[in-house]
């Protein structure tokens, strides 16, 4: 049998390449649109990285400046402010969203009535399907320091605030991040419960039966059976999402304003502001340099997360 396989492989190698290409010509033809799409939209735009080493004077006349854009970038306090804001906002948001998703999953898992359980799941999933523009508009009204602001109206009604001393949560350096985390939890936590609910549905019921025989109540079952079963999934979700911490843009962009730019500016919004700086000629050279640095940091995080994933998931990486 082994000799026959060797002979077959030798026979395949003897067939000319042109003949093999002709034989599978229709498969190559079907693959051609995908190849063209990949080249046009994934690989050709990578040539734009060269702009990071130039001073942009117009599309026909960029001037090569070497590493000047990077030297300028590392000397800019605003850049480092945006960099640390990106890390802080992303990591805290990741931890809060994951933590709330786990808590919600555990609570949903304890609902016995199937119809009520599905209704609760549907309600908490719905905010995820709202665009960030709509979300920002809705929460802008809820947190508004006017008569339309439900939060300020409630705080005045219970005596925490006085009339005329309303807090503009989305325009306050002190309160903006707190409001940002709350809005993100409201919007994304429900969607994050899907993977945890899938894990919970795969727990062996015999474990709960054994725990009940040993005298465990509902809380002890959650503590000693449910949560340990979720632990590996929680670690995996954290590791996989850690690779995306540098991609923060839309949620911040629609909620920030000039009053909170020092605490709300992230790398993506910083790149946007530097590109369209109002001077007439977009600052493509400098903003491309910042974008390249962000991509390199993101690549490093992916490699670190891949290494951690292999440790946690028994050799299975993310790339």
How would you concisely characterize the structure shown here?
With 319 residues, this protein is mostly helical. α4 packs across α15 (284-312), α10 runs antiparallel to α11 and α14 (267-275) packs antiparallel against α15 (284-312). The chain is flat and about 75 Å long.
Distinctive features:
two-stranded antiparallel sheet, MetI-like fold, 15 helices, 319 residues, mainly alpha
Layout of helices and strands:
Layout: H1 2-14, H2 17-23, H3 25-43, E1 54-55, E2 63-64, H4 68-74, H5 77-109, H6 114-125, H7 132-142, H8 150-157, H9 176-201, H10 205-213, H11 218-242, H12 250-253, H13 261-264, H14 267-275, H15 284-312
Antiparallel strand pairs: 1-2
Helix pairs in contact: 4-15, 5-9, 5-11, 6-9, 9-11, 10-11, 11-15, 14-15
Named at the architecture level, the CATH assignment of the domain at 69-134 and 163-312 is Orthogonal Bundle
Question: Number of helix segments?
Answer: 15
Mind telling me the C-alpha Rg? Answer: 27 Å
Q: What is the mean predicted local confidence, pLDDT?
A: 84
Shape: flat
The fourth-level CATH homologous superfamily of the domain at 69-134 and 163-312 is MetI-like
Provide the CATH top-level class of the domain at 69-134 and 163-312: Mainly Alpha
Straight-line N-to-C gap:
37 Å
How are the strands of the largest sheet arranged? Answer: 1-2
Output the structural class: mainly alpha
Strand percent estimate: under 5%
* Biggest sheet architecture: 2 strands, antiparallel
CATH topology group of the domain at 69-134 and 163-312: MetI-like fold
> How many strands in all?
2
Order of helices and strands: HHHEEHHHHHHHHHHHH
């Amino acid at each position: 049998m082994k000799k026959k396989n060797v002979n077959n492989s030798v026979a395949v190698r003897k067939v000319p390449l042109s003949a093999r290409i002709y034989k599978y010509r229709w498969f190559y033809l079907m693959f051609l649109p995908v190849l063209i799409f990949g080249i046009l939209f994934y690989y050709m735009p990578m040539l734009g990285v060269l702009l990071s080493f130039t001073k942009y004077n117009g599309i026909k006349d960029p001037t090569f400046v070497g590493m000047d854009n990077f030297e300028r970038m590392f000397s800019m306090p605003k850049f480092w402010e945006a960099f640390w804001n990106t890390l802080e906002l992303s990591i805290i948001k990741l931890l809060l969203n994951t933590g709330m998703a786990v808590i919600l999953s555990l609570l949903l898992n304890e609902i016995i009535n199937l119809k009520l359980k599905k209704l609760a799941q549907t309600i908490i999933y719905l905010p995820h399907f709202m665009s960030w523009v709509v979300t920002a508009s809705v929460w802008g009204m809820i947190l508004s320091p006017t008569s339309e602001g439900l939060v300020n109206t409630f705080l005045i009604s219970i005596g925490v605030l006085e009339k005329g001393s309303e807090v503009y949560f989305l325009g306050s350096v002190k309160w903006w991040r707190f409001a940002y985390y709350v809005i993100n939890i409201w919007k994304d936590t429900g969607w994050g419960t899907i993977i945890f609910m899938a894990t919970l549905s795969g727990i062996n019921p015999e474990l709960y039966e054994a725990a009940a025989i040993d005298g465990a109540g509902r809380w002890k079952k959650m503590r000693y059976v449910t949560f340990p079963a979720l632990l590996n999934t929680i670690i995996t979700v954290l590791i996989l999402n850690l690779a995306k911490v540098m991609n923060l843009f839309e949620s911040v962009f629609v909620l920030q304003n000039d009053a909170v730019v020092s605490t709300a500016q992230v790398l993506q919004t910083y790149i946007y502001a530097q590109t369209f700086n109002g001077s007439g000629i977009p600052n493509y050279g400098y903003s491309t340099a910042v974008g390249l640095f962000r991509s390199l940091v993101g690549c490093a995080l992916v490699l670190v997360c891949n290494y951690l994933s292999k440790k946690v998931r028994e050799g299975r990486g993310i790339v």
